[in-house]
């Protein structure tokens, strides 16, 4: 196993959610209209998307219930990683790859995608990526090219940002080498961390997805 840690800025890859030709249905709500323009999210949905982005594990009911294809041509171009109303979803080779790695407390949550009739189910399978695993390993004081968010006056917690870090811009502690292969550090907004094992498997799979990888510096404890 490669003793490396990688950070991915794939969440900033707009192509993952650009006119995919699908719309969604939330539990207890009507189907979204067959159009590319998105409506304003409910407060509950906004909170769930934010929690997911920070690596918190969601229940099945907090994800989208299902999706349907309203533009088959657009949908045919969708890669193995895509957005469904703010949640990362996977299919194909990437889904199979993720089944073979250590997700820790995370999991793949299966959901249906239907044809335009909202009844005929596409073969799939399709999954939401329920991260569920967090590691406190990101070292902002030893990293480069960051911008600092405000400090929470009650908790002292601060998040950091980097538009698209380069190799060795981001430092992590050696503890990152243990535990799950895929995780989020809540201190680092919008980024995904992964083990060298998972990075190498993704690269070998040739998925044609720009994960925007950057190799981290691993510092001793």
Description:
The protein is of the alpha+beta class. It is built from four helices and 15 strands. It has helices spanning 43-53, 72-75, 92-99, 196-205; strands at 5-8, 22-25, 66-69, 81-84, 87-91, 107-111, 113-114, 126-130, 147-151, 158-161, 171-173, 182-183, 192-195, 213-215, 217-219. The strands form five sheets. A four-stranded antiparallel β-sheet has the order 12-13-1-14. Helix 3 packs antiparallel against helix 4. It is globular and about 55 Å long. The mean pLDDT is 94.
Search tags:
221 residues; alpha+beta; 4-stranded antiparallel β-sheet; 4 helices; 15 strands; 15% helix; globular
Q: Summarize the biggest pleated sheet.
A: 4 strands, antiparallel
First-residue to last-residue Cα separation: 20 Å
Helix/strand/pairing class, anyone?
alpha+beta
**Residue windows where pLDDT falls under 50 for at least 5 positions:** none
Radius of gyration: 18 Å
Shape: globular
Widest sheet: strand ordering: 12-13-1-14
Number of separate helices: 4
SSE topology string? EEHEHEEHEEEEEEEEHEE
Strand content: 25-35%
Summarize model confidence as the mean pLDDT. 94
Helix content: 10-25%
Q: Quick one: how many beta strands?
A: 15
Question: Topology, please?
Answer:
Layout: E1 5-8, E2 22-25, H1 43-53, E3 66-69, H2 72-75, E4 81-84, E5 87-91, H3 92-99, E6 107-111, E7 113-114, E8 126-130, E9 147-151, E10 158-161, E11 171-173, E12 182-183, E13 192-195, H4 196-205, E14 213-215, E15 217-219
Helix pairs in contact: 3-4
């Amino acid at each position: 196993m490669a003793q490396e840690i990688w950070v991915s800025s794939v969440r900033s890859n707009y192509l993952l959610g650009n006119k995919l030709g699908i719309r969604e249905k939330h539990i207890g709500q009507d189907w979204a209209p067959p159009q590319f323009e998105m409506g304003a999210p409910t407060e509950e949905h906004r909170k769930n998307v934010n929690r997911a982005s920070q690596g918190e594990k969601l229940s099945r009911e907090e994800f989208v219930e299902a999706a349907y294809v309203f533009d088959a041509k657009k949908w045919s171009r969708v890669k193995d990683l895509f957005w469904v109303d703010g949640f990362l979803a996977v299919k194909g080779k990437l889904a199979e790859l993720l089944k073979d790695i250590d997700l820790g407390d995370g999991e793949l949550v299966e959901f249906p995608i239907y044809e335009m009739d909202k009844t005929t189910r596409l073969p799939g399978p399709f999954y939401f990526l329920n991260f569920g695993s967090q590691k406190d390993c990101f070292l902002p004081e030893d990293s480069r090219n960051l911008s600092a968010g405000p400090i929470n006056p009650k908790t002292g917690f601060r998040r950091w940002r980097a538009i698209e870090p380069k190799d060795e811009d981001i430092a992590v502690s050696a503890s990152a080498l243990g535990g799950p292969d895929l995780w989020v550090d809540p201190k680092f907004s919008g980024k995904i961390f992964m083990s060298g094992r998972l990075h190498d498997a993704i690269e070998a799979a040739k998925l044609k997805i720009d994960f925007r990888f950057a190799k981290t510096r691993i510092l001793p404890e």
